[in-house]
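Work Package 4 report. The design task specified in the project plan requires that, given a folded chain encoded as structure tokens, an amino acid be chosen for each position. We show below one input record used in the internal validation round.
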């Protein structure tokens, strides 16, 4: 059974159509939208500040979502994929975003819609990621504009695939 726990009188809100893996942890003030998934060994920790997820958000294996006490909650839009072992901390992620494997998005960042954060990138505090762009490196910088092919071929495809994958575990 996953760890789903109330903290300081606040409990996770998880719609019935979401998938939460057996060893995932979701605690505190976490509000998930429809068709979300939280995968194996992922942690969504709304203990020190709230976490709000839109619809069709997948938090892949080993990823961590957290915030900073009293200053930086985490808000995630619709159709967002958070790759394996990524860290999303005290920031705002808009709609249609792919956070690559092992990437780190730090406090008070804003990742605008239709963007990709490359695998292993470190988006440092207070960075604003331009809509329709790809950021990579340490520290992450814009490397190019995103194409329509990447929006449909990567961002949409991955988010939709994770809805399909989660269905395999509900059978």
């Amino acid at each position: 059974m996953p760890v789903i726990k109330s903290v300081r009188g606040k409990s996770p809100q998880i719609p019935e159509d979401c998938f939460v893996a057996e060893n995932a942890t979701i605690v505190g003030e976490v509000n998930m939208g429809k068709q979300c998934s939280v995968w194996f060994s992922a942690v969504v920790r709304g203990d020190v500040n709230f976490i709000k997820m839109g619809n069709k958000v997948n938090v892949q294996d080993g990823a961590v979502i957290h915030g900073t006490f009293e200053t930086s909650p985490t808000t995630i839009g619709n159709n967002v994929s958070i790759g394996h072992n990524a860290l999303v901390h005290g920031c705002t992620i808009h709609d249609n975003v792919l956070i690559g494997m092992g990437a780190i998005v730090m406090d008070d960042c804003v990742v605008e819609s239709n963007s990709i954060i490359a695998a292993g990138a470190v988006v440092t505090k207070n960075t604003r990621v331009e809509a329709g762009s790809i950021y990579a490196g340490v520290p992450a910088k814009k490397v190019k504009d995103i194409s329509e092919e990447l929006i449909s071929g990567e961002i949409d495809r991955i988010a939709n695939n994770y809805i399909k994958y989660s269905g395999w575990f509900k059978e």
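The chain has a mean pLDDT of 96. Validation will be extended to a larger panel in the next phase.
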